[in-house]
Amino acid sequence: MSSRAAVVEPEVLNSERLNAVRSKIIERVSDTKKRLFAVVYINDRQFKVSQDDIIHLHHNVPLDVGDNIKLEKVLLVGGSEFSLIGRPLLSPDTVTVNATVIEKTTTSPELDYTMVNHKKIQIMKWLSKELTVLRINDIVVKPSALGTEGKDE
């Protein structure tokens, strides 16, 4: 028996089919009734978010309550009928995710208890982490940027 595996060649897309797919994506993005989702990269973590979601960041981010921010590290954006995947990130000209800082607080205290046997050493600490809470306002995909992406030149 031979241990060789069959190699499947990728399908080459012609420009007509590429333009048809691009126009369908632009049509879906421009429909405001469709809900989009995105995967964003914040503080070494990835979050899957959609409009009006709330995310908790486990660090003290130097922002004030009420500040509007624009998340530009977007890995993926999609809807019910399409997905745009970045390699590794989507261009900030193509998609932006807008968020608002709604709260800065701490987690409930957790007990950290250490006991060293035979030395009668007991250390008890109450630890709480700082949290920054963000609300995702909207996910904006610019159709004009989709028209130029991926064209053969």
Architecture overview:
The protein has 153 residues and is mainly beta. The chain has one domain. The protein is 13% helix and 43% strand. The protein contains two helices and ten strands, in the order H-E-E-E-E-E-E-E-E-E-E-H. It has helices spanning 15-30, 143-146, and strands spanning 37-42, 45-50, 54-57, 68-71, 74-78, 83-85, 95-106, 110-116, 121-127, 130-141. Strands 2-1-5-6 form a four-stranded antiparallel sheet, with no helix packed on it. Strands 3-10-7-4 form a four-stranded antiparallel sheet. A two-stranded antiparallel sheet has the order 8-9. 12% of the residues are buried. Mean pLDDT is 87; it is low at 149-153.
Main traits of this protein?
single chain; 153 residues; mainly beta; four-stranded antiparallel beta sheet; 2 helices; 10 strands; 13% helix; 43% strand; structural constituent of ribosome; Large ribosomal subunit protein bL21m; bL21-like_sf; bL21-like
